[in-house]
Amino acid sequence: MKFNTALRGYTAKRLEEIDRADILVGIPCFNNEATIAHVIQMLSHGLAKYYKDQRCVIMVADGGSTDDTREVAKEFQIKPWQEKLIGIYRGPGGKGSALRSIFEAGERLKVAALAVVDSDLRSITSDWVPYLLDPVLEKGYQYVAPVYLRHKYDGTITNNIVYNLTRALYGKRVRQPIGGDFALSRDLAKHYVEQDLWQTEVARYGIDIWMTTEAVAGGFKICQSNLGVKIHDAKDPSQHLGPMFRQVIWTLFTLMERNEGKWKNIQGSVTVPTFDHPSAVEPEEVKVNLDNLIKHFKVGYGQFKALWKEIFCPECFAQISRAAKLGRKNFHLPTPAWIQILYELAATFHAWTHNRMNLVDLVTPLYYARVASFVRESWEMTSAEAEALVEAQAQMFEEQKPYLIRVWEAKAGGLPHAG
Q1: Residues 27-75 pLDDT 10s
Q2: Of 194, 227, 329, 364, which residue has the fewest beta carbons closer than 10 angstroms?
Q3: What is the per-residue burial (b if ≥16 Cβ within 10 Å, else e) of 46-61?
Q4: Taking the CA of residue 253 as centre, how many other CA atoms within 13 Å lie in the half-sphere pointing to its CB?
């Protein structure tokens, strides 16, 4: 079923009543009764403290929560001069439809700026409000991506895949392309609403990376704002991140096809203006089960090695086979091999027209191998030292971009491998 709007009748009527606003802050949520009140409280405080003379609306875009998320949100008292809007969005389940409803609301209210924050945040403070909104309201930026102070094992998908690929492909060093907390101008919100992806899997699974990619590839004026520590429901990569890996990889590769004419001509990368703010909080430790990661990889190697041998070039497959023989103490999948794996995988995905999600499923164990290798490499490092490791890896992704273009074109032409 195709929806021409994500706003239900009740929400549209409330927007008519409110009529106009200067600022809209949206919270996409689903079953977040434990954290939603804290998030609303911090937003209400921040808007009251920094934008008291502006008309402000807090919008909760709910996915049909089966707990008391909406009830808790309704009961929480915001400042009397602020407006609150709580509704269930229309459209395919997932964050994409929630964001579509927020962007549409911002357009209808003709706001000067919108911000969006995650609903499971425990570390949000009232200062996040100006940190996100000021670059749009005061400095004319159209997209504000977050930068967080994170533990070295929080964000392994960003550190080992998303940051590297976004930077190498599109030439902008956006450190957290799937951050979840961001701000944008009304014209960018309008641009997003007008795109044709709201019924697609990209909107369901990869909306954060799509928004960042669209802003970067579309030439919008982007910056980053340092929000300090992000404390949310962090997950052990050995336990929970397989499904997320599959969704993010699928979206990244789909966007590569959409934007092929843009990224192929970009060389190197440039920094993105970043607004820093003092933070006294240290990130919580994220525990990683290294044995589990290695086990997942080795089981996958036993199942899929014949297929991997077909997909990857001989040199790349040799590195994978070498890693499969290593134990916990000396486990290693070198960065150059990981870059080859991702680039050859992108090219294979492009060449395959069917069973693409099967292809991504097949290679998920290789992601576990890379995370295990990163954990081993950074075991004795502080989070700051591990950050230098991430930067060095991203630089290597850039330097190997000609290899990506070579295999991309070779596999599209029907050649199995390209050296």
Answers
A1: 999 999 999 999 999 999 999 999 999 999 999 999 999 999 999 999 9
A2: 329
A3: bbbebbeebbbbbbbb
A4: 24
**Structure-model confidence comparison of residues 149 and 79, the more confident one:** 79
Q: Considering only CA atoms, which of 343, 337, 346, 328 is closest in space to residue 402?
A: 343
Cα–Cα dist 11/106, whole Å? 12
pTM of the entire structure? 0.94
Q: Which two structure tokens, joined as six digits, stand for 43? A: 């937003």
Half-sphere exposure of 144 (CA within 13 A, CB side): 32
Q: What is the pLDDT of residues 117-151, one digit of tens each?
A: 999 988 899 999 999 999 999 999 999 999 998 88
Extract the tokens encoding 288: 């990683």
Helix then strand count (H, E) for the chain reads 18, 8
Instruction: Return the domain boundaries, the chain.
Output: 9-275, 290-412
Name which of 53-57, 68-72, 234-238, 382-386 the model is least confident about: 234-238
- Condensed to tens digits (0 to 9), the pLDDT of residues 248-285 reads 999 999 999 999 999 999 999 999 999 998 776 777 88
Q: Evaluate the CA torsion angle 357, 362, 363, 365 in order and state its sign.
A: positive
**What is the Cα–Cα distance from 33 to 38, expressed in whole angstroms?**
10
Tell me which of 3.90.550.10, 3.30.750.210, 3.40.50.970, 1.10.357.10 is the CATH number of domain 9-275: 3.90.550.10
CB of 98 closer than 8 Å to CB of 61: yes
Beta bridge pairs of residue 116: 26, 182
Distance in angstroms between the alpha carbons of the first and the last residue of the chain: 45
**Burial call 198-212: b when 16+ CB within 10 Å, e when fewer:** bebbbbbbbbbbbbb
Among 16, 395, 325, residue whose Cα is nearest residue 173: 395
Per-position b or e across 367-404, b if 16+ CB within 10 A of its CB: bbbbbbbbbbbbeeeebeebbebbeebbeebbebbebb
Which tokens sit at 150? 């994170």
Position 154 scores a pLDDT of 85
Q: Identify which of 167, 174, 187 has the alpha carbon closest to the alpha carbon of residue 144.
A: 174
